[in-house]
Automatic annotation (TrEMBL):
<dbReference type="InterPro" id="IPR016274">
    <property type="entry name" value="Histidine_acid_Pase_euk"/>
</dbReference>
<protein>
    <submittedName>
        <fullName>Uncharacterized protein</fullName>
    </submittedName>
</protein>
<dbReference type="InterPro" id="IPR029033">
    <property type="entry name" value="His_PPase_superfam"/>
</dbReference>
<keyword id="KW-0378">Hydrolase</keyword>
<comment type="similarity">
    <text>Belongs to the histidine acid phosphatase family.</text>
</comment>
<dbReference type="Pfam" id="PF00328">
    <property type="entry name" value="His_Phos_2"/>
</dbReference>
<dbReference type="InterPro" id="IPR033379">
    <property type="entry name" value="Acid_Pase_AS"/>
</dbReference>
<keyword id="KW-0325">Glycoprotein</keyword>
<dbReference type="GO" id="GO:0003993">
    <property type="term" value="F:acid phosphatase activity"/>
</dbReference>
<feature type="active site" description="Nucleophile">
    <location>
        <position position="68"/>
    </location>
</feature>
<keyword id="KW-1015">Disulfide bond</keyword>
<dbReference type="InterPro" id="IPR000560">
    <property type="entry name" value="His_Pase_clade-2"/>
</dbReference>
<dbReference type="GO" id="GO:0009277">
    <property type="term" value="C:fungal-type cell wall"/>
</dbReference>
<feature type="disulfide bond">
    <location>
        <begin position="255"/>
        <end position="268"/>
    </location>
</feature>
<feature type="active site" description="Proton donor">
    <location>
        <position position="328"/>
    </location>
</feature>
<feature type="disulfide bond">
    <location>
        <begin position="398"/>
        <end position="406"/>
    </location>
</feature>
Length: 448
């Protein structure tokens, strides 16, 4: 049974509700906006553009490129969280008081090692529910594009279990939890996350050996300052735990994943919102240099964008809805190739927090992130519109169409020009025995 993502009353009356969005708090005070892509899904702020067009035009095709739903931390992160948990739990503190007074009753939220990296099942922000609700919302908005007939509805997914779970739950939501319809009409196509997939994949970052070798591009990491002060504050108000700035960082990450897994977290309540603002920038600067603005990022994302353009160029196709589920890294590469990061005029500072930056991982790739691209035909010309996490984001280099849309032919020209000398196959040296192009959107029936 599926329940709505409603924040329970116990949270609403809790002190740390100041961190959650509410009618009396500005969006900037929403904790979910500062969890660096590790926390639950949250809608994008955008630029104030209406998600619905001002007249009755409806898209004829929709392409969705989404991240999996909320998950447990991967094993390396889980080990770091367990280390700070054990340190605080085993501290010899006779009187536990202040922000950390909950430690005596504190429980670790990961049931066991087998749960690491898996989609979360419980709590108000669980990944299964997020993806089910996503599917349901897409059916309500674009369901008219799927003809209820014998034709299967393909749902493409990367091979990790959390991505497959997301694709399946999305499909169940799309078919309104009707198991008979889902089993009869949905077809989940799983694409391996291996190098042998070449360009025919939803994980080009795995296929590209050169990209993997070119890692660690983030040579001068951001060094935070506020977490040092936060550690002093906690040690003053809750003496005896000997909290360090490193512990504060781990606790902030703990908060994000505990929300994903349980739906609430007393750790969130113990930390100041400024701590999460700094956490977010730690994550943003790391993801900017190692993923989003990486020298190989455009080439990796161009595979997906080029496929989307080709699908949208076709006048008639058997499908008008294209659903894909993968990882946050792939979404960042997609946005790079689409030109979204042109809004970020300069590389992120590693000396101080750039408060005016466009690139914020919580805005762009929270758990359950989704890029929705709509194709319209206006005066016999095709135009596209981009929504990232439900917020309309015009393409910086291409927004002169009606309602800040982008003419498809212009986007094709922009991307094609950038791909010259920077295409995936050449840059990543994909050998001839591996797929040289992405074809699964067209030949998926042959693979079933």
């Amino acid at each position: 049974m599926h329940f709505g993502n409603i924040i329970p009353a116990s949270i609403l009356i809790n002190q740390y509700t100041e961190h959650f969005v509410s009618p009396i708090h500005a969006d900037q005070n929403n904790l979910l906006k500062h969890l660096g892509g590790m926390g639950p899904y949250v809608k994008g702020t955008g630029f104030g553009l209406c998600p619905e067009l001002e007249w009755n035009a409806k898209p004829e095709k929709v392409f969705i490129f989404a991240r999996h739903g909320e998950r447990y931390p991967t094993e390396p992160v889980a080990k770091r969280l367990k280390a700070v948990f054990d340190k605080l739990k085993n501290a010899d503190v006779k009187k536990q008081e202040g922000p950390l007074s909950f430690i005596k009753d504190w429980e670790f939220f990961i049931p066991g090692p087998d749960w690491c990296g898996m989609e979360t099942l419980y709590g108000d922000f669980n990944g299964f529910q997020t993806m089910f609700d996503f599917g349901k919302s897409i059916q309500l908005k674009y369901g008219y594009l799927y003809k209820d007939c014998d034709e299967k509805l393909p749902i493409f997914t990367a091979g990790k279990r959390r991505c497959v779970d997301s694709a399946e739950e999305f499909g169940k939501g799309f078919f309104n939890d009707n198991d008979e319809k889902y089993n009869a009409q949905a077809k989940v196509i799983v694409l391996d996350e291996t190098k042998r997939m070449g360009a025919d994949t939803l994980t080009t970052s795995v296929s590209c050996k050169k990209y993997i070798r070119h890692g660690e591009y983030y040579k001068h990491p951001f060094i935070g300052k506020y977490m040092i002060s936060e550690a002093k504050r906690l040690n003053t108000l809750s003496p005896g735990f000997n909290i360090t700035a490193k512990d504060v960082y781990a606790l902030a990450v703990f908060c994000a994943y505990e929300l994903d897994a349980v739906g609430e977290s007393r750790v969130c309540d113990a930390l100041s919102l400024n701590t999460f603002v700094e956490l977010e920038y730690f994550r943003d600067s790391e993801m900017w240099y190692e993923k989003a603005a990486h020298p190989y990022s455009f080439a990796l994302g161009s595979v997906y964008v080029d496929a989307m353009i080709k699908l949208f160029e076709e006048q008639e196709t058997k499908e008008n809805l294209f659903f894909s589920f993968t990882h946050d890294t792939e979404l960042l590469h997609f946005m790079n190739a689409l030109g979204i990061f042109e809004y970020q005029k300069e590389d992120l500072s590693t000396r101080n927090i750039d408060f005016l930056r466009f690139f914020k991982t919580s805005e762009l790739v929270p758990m359950g992130a989704r890029i929705v691209i709509e194709r319209y035909t206006i005066n016999k010309e095709h135009y596209i519109r981009v929504l990232i996490n439900d917020a309309v984001i015009p393409i910086p280099e291409c927004q002169n169409g009606p309602f800040f849309t982008c003419k498809l032919t212009k986007l094709n020209h922009i991307v094609s020009e950038k791909m010259k000398g920077n295409n995936f196959v050449d840059k990543c040296r994909i050998t001839e025995e591996r797929p040289q192009e992405l074809t699964f959107y067209w030949d998926w029936r042959e693979r079933c």
